[in-house]
Design goal:
mainly beta; two-stranded antiparallel sheet; 9% helix; globular
Length: 128
C-alpha cells in the first residue's frame, strides 16, 4: 500500500548540493522491484536527460535499506561492530534492516546524479 508521501533525495557531486523531490505514487510503483546500485531515468522526477543511481533509502517504519540484503521486506540480522565506541571483541547485536529491493513501503530514496541533463537543477527547483 503506497502512502504517496515518498521523497527522493538527489545528491549532486559537482556542486555538493542535495535536492528534495516528491515521488508520485504511480512513479513509486514503476520504481518498484529495482535495487540499490541500479540506474534510473530522471524523468521520474521531472528531470529529463538526467540519469540517477539509487544509493539507499528508508522504509516508512524508519529502517535503513541494506545493499547486500536482496529482499523487499524487513529482516533482523546479527551485526558485529568493528569501529567506534562499540568496538569490543565479541559484541554483536541483532538489528532490523530493510532489503535493497524497492517496494511500496519506501518513505525515502537516495540518489546520486550519474549523467547531467540539458537544464540545470537550480532552474527546476521550486523556491522555498
Amino acid at each position: 500500500m503506497a502512502t504517496g508521501n515518498s521523497v527522493a533525495i538527489i545528491a549532486d557531486r559537482k556542486s555538493g548540493k542535495t535536492y528534495k523531490r516528491e515521488i508520485k505514487p504511480e512513479n513509486l510503483s514503476l520504481l518498484s522491484g529495482r535495487r540499490i546500485g541500479e540506474e534510473v531515468d530522471g524523468i521520474f522526477f521531472e528531470m529529463p536527460g538526467y540519469k540517477l543511481q539509487i544509493t539507499g533509502g528508508t522504509s516508512i517504519d524508519g529502517f535503513a535499506m541494506k545493499p547486500d540484503l536482496f529482499i523487499s521486506g524487513k529482516k533482523r540480522i546479527l551485526v558485529r561492530y568493528r569501529e567506534g565506541e562499540r568496538h569490543k571483541d565479541g559484541i554483536r547485536k541483532r538489528v532490523t534492516f530493510r532489503g535493497a529491493v524497492i517496494g511500496p513501503d519506501i518513505a525515502q530514496l537516495n540518489f546520486v546524479i550519474n549523467q547531467y541533463g540539458p537544464d540545470p537543477l537550480e532552474k527546476s527547483e521550486e523556491p522555498k
